[in-house]
Amino acid sequence: MCFVIRPACAFAQPEFERWQMGVEADGSMAHFGARLNQTGWVQAWNLSAHFVLLPFGAVHFARLGGVLDGAPQFGVGPVFERFNTRQNFGGLDFEVRYYLTHFERGPLVPWIEASIAPGGTDLRLKGAGRGTRLEGPFAALIQGGVGLSYFFRKRAAAYLGLHTEHVSNGGFNGPDRNYSINTALGMVVGVSWFFR
Q: What is the CATH number of domain 19-194?
């Protein structure tokens, strides 16, 4: 109803200022399917925190009617992932998120993101018959996703999104036949705080 009768609602209109800094924290769940050799929908969960920076603030593109207008955000911070095989991953995550400001509706702003986290793992998956043979100690966690942020204050938001994960050792560990594991679907939820 707020979207129909906009003047009657007090929206927390988000602000994306140049060189704006902030922090964010989130948690996610992932399902890898049979390649993880485990049952259940939640086969892994992770926790991460980032220091974030919006160096350009909101950027505008005259072409394409402003469809590409947005605010690029760069983040870095630790990430920890726990698999239901009782094995773990830990690393340093480098994240890029792009807020699609052209499509914002009041306090709701959609985004897309990608990240890579090189790190260490004690994973020892040996299911060669299913195309899975992933070993540590080195691995990289690569994630990509789409989501929606709700700005309950001008510089504070809660967000929810769908994402995929790719865990790989890049062929650096063990024998030549080392593979990666991928999610078909995952979910992330978190909060962001921006400073002046």
A: 2.40.160.20
Sequence spans of domains, the chain: 19-194
Task: Check: pTM over 0.90? Answer yes or no.
Answer: no
3-state secondary structure 150-178: EEEECCEEEEEEEEEEEEECCCCCCCCCC
Q: How far apart are CA 67 and CA 102, in angstroms?
A: 6
pLDDT per position as a tens digit, 60-90: 988 888 899 999 999 999 999 998 888 899 9
According to DSSP, residue 139 is labeled: E
Question: What spatial distance separates the first Cα and last Cα of the chain, rounded to whole Å?
Answer: 31
At residue 34, the pLDDT reads 72
| Per-residue buried b or exposed e for 106-131, using 16+ beta carbons within 10 Å of the residue's own CB | bbebbbebebbbebebebebeeeeee
Give the CA angle between residues 118, 162, 81 to the nearest 5°: 35
- Residue 76's identity, in one-letter code, is V
pLDDT average, residue stretch 173-194: 77
What residues contact 170, with CB distance under 8 A and at least 6 apart? Answer: 138, 140
Asked whether 14 and 104 are in contact (CB, 8 A), the reply is yes
Residue 61, SS3 per DSSP: coil
Residue 155 confidence class, pLDDT cut points 50, 70, 90: very high
The answer to whether 90 and 78 have CB atoms below 8 angstroms apart is yes
